[in-house]
């Protein structure tokens, strides 16, 4: 028998061929783009803003830095970074054009236009030169990427020596009772909210399932080390509902 085993991955709780996942994720974010920012506030009760501010507190942006925000969507991280460090430069890179289009419509995008670029590109094959950024970030994008290790390798490649990676992603609660309560909220409330606000239950069902498939804090820290990063550390946010991971290209 000569037929090769097909590489598979997960799309939420479904098993799919690796080459299908990016198209499915692209479909989700194309469909939700116009309601994405509103849904983030509603689903998290605004907490995603606190987490993104905590990311900036740990990152401590500097005016001389050039930031690449991968899977940057509608620009939340780049806007925050540039407001904290006027004079810095930022590039928002995302594979879903509709998300970038929504980002460009935001008032912050006009105010920060001189320091901000929007680029369509894939985290697993970043369209940037080696050693070209001081900081690489990713917020809530990593769990959507088909081959996470390839994206981490790419982050390492495009960072300058001495540069820093910081990733904000959903994570695992340490206590099973808390995880149970959080799962009840995620699985029962968020898809219904998606149906009502974005007229798209299936996309939000995928988003909550993808959270449960993401590796725990220690496993993810190991993947970052495997890509070559040093001084890898993480901080839990809201007891581990989300976590920040930081690593350095030493
Ligand atoms: C949940 S959104 C996060 C957007 C933004 N970072 C934020 O925090 O609001 C996830 C984003 O990841 C992007 N994405 C998923 N896979 C990607 C890939 N392989 N390369 C680039 N972007 C990707 C999607 O298009 C989507 O805009």
UniProtKB/TrEMBL annotation:
The reaction(s) this protein catalyses: a 2-methoxy-6-(all-trans-polyprenyl)benzene-1,4-diol + S-adenosyl-L-methionine = a 5-methoxy-2-methyl-3-(all-trans-polyprenyl)benzene-1,4-diol + S-adenosyl-L-homocysteine + H(+); a 2-demethylmenaquinol + S-adenosyl-L-methionine = a menaquinol + S-adenosyl-L-homocysteine + H(+)
EC numbers on record: 2.1.1.163, 2.1.1.201
GO biological process: aerobic respiration; menaquinone biosynthetic process; methylation
Uppermost EC category: transferase
Binding site for S-adenosyl-L-methionine: 74, 94, 122-123
InterPro entries the UniProt entry points to: SAM-dependent_MTases_sf (IPR029063), UbiE/COQ5_MeTrFase (IPR004033), UbiE/COQ5_MeTrFase_CS (IPR023576)
Record pathway: Cofactor biosynthesis; ubiquinone biosynthesis; Quinol/quinone metabolism; menaquinone biosynthesis; menaquinol from 1,4-dihydroxy-2-naphthoate: step 2/2
Domain of life where this protein originates: Bacteria
Keywords from the UniProt entry: Menaquinone biosynthesis, Methyltransferase, S-adenosyl-L-methionine, Transferase, Ubiquinone biosynthesis
One term of GO molecular function: demethylmenaquinone methyltransferase activity
Family note: Belongs to the class I-like SAM-binding methyltransferase superfamily. MenG/UbiE family.
HAMAP family assigned: MenG_UbiE_methyltr
Function: Methyltransferase required for the conversion of demethylmenaquinol (DMKH2) to menaquinol (MKH2) and the conversion of 2-polyprenyl-6-methoxy-1,4-benzoquinol (DDMQH2) to 2-polyprenyl-3-methyl-6-methoxy-1,4-benzoquinol (DMQH2).
Name assigned to this protein: Ubiquinone/menaquinone biosynthesis C-methyltransferase UbiE
Species in which this protein is naturally found: Rhodovulum marinum
Phylogenetic placement of the source organism: Bacteria, Pseudomonadati, Pseudomonadota, Alphaproteobacteria, Rhodobacterales
